[in-house]
Amino acid sequence: MGKVMLEVKNLKTKYVTRLREDVYAVDGVSLKIEEGKSLGVAGESGCGKSTLALSLMGYYFPPLHYMSGDIIVDGKNISGMKPDDVRRNVLGTEIAYIPQAAMNALNPTQKIIRFIEDVIHVHDPGMSKKDVYDLAKERFGILGLPEEVLQKHAVELSGGMKQRTVIAISTILSPKVLIADEPSSALDVTSQKMVIKMMRDLMDKGYIKSMIFITHELPLLYNVTDDIMVMYAGQIVEKGSAREMVFDPLHPYTKGLMGSIIVPEEGVRENKLTAIPGTPPNLKHPPKGCRFADRCKYATPTCSGMEVPTIEMPNGREYRCLMSERKIREVYENE
Ligand SMILES: Nc1ncnc2c1ncn2[C@@H]1O[C@H](COP(=O)(O)OP(=O)(O)OP(=O)(O)O)[C@@H](O)[C@H]1O
Ligand SMILES: [Mg+2]
Predict the structure, then answer these.
(1) Which ligand is nearest to the CA of 180?
(2) Ion ligand 2, residues whose Cβ is below 5 A away
(3) pLDDT digit string (tens) for 66-106?
């Protein structure tokens, strides 16, 4: 087993709304990522993916609040750190974050090189302009971006270039964990593939040590990440290798998310499900028992009546369902 870069134990965080209502958006998430590995996080809109990303950085500002659990980056527990400590000692170096729609948030009046200077100077105020420039030039080269981009403004760049620029800026300090929230969903298919490949290259070359890739499209993750975790209503419902999750989903929600997909070497899958009927529960009052029960066609009254345990399999795979693996396979086979 490789060195563990990120370990999260039973993390719980919530939003407190202006009306003082609690929204339990991350409700007991545990995960582990080893050096050189990537984890994909998938799930429908509102299931807590972006909140998980924000929570993992340990950078809490209202309305988001930390409740309990551990976030351990390369052996160092960062949960409970003060925001100022997190900004100085965690962001950029331990964990880097590319927010959803980041490429549209670049300040249009600032040259690209200035963003890089800003990031570097938080950690190394004494670094000379020339050293910053040389470092930026090297990284931009790896991402296939010409040196001239450093002197440009964001509005002068195409979508794909902008997204690569955002990746270069975010990873300039060689973080141990890169969390990218929907880094490719605003792009056309060609740019999407390019961006994904670049992130992989950065990891293969050792500039980032591990990666979390968030998307609502589960099939997209198949070619990109080693493992996949599916979230539903703030919890993990299933986790496993990308191949297992895509071709052999156990949890009915994962199976539903797979819908009808195309995987290059395997052809079109026969499953015709494209959307799962119904909507996710309100996270202000999460239902008792299995949170997916009211949308699950295999649910029985027991599912809503008791806490559903997570079943851990010997190969590290896990799923949260009352049905046994055998029962699940039997049910799917008879469809
Ligand atoms: N600032 C906020 N205040 C209160 N509730 C919030 C806030 N931001 C998000 N939420 C709620 O937290 C839950 C999780 O939202 P989150 O944005 O993490 O989902 P997501 O999986 O990233 O969705 P998407 O795929 O649309 O990006 C949702 O129920 C959402 O309504
Ligand atoms: Mg989101």
Answers:
(1) 2
(2) 49-50, 100
(3) 999 999 999 999 998 999 999 999 999 999 999 888 888 89
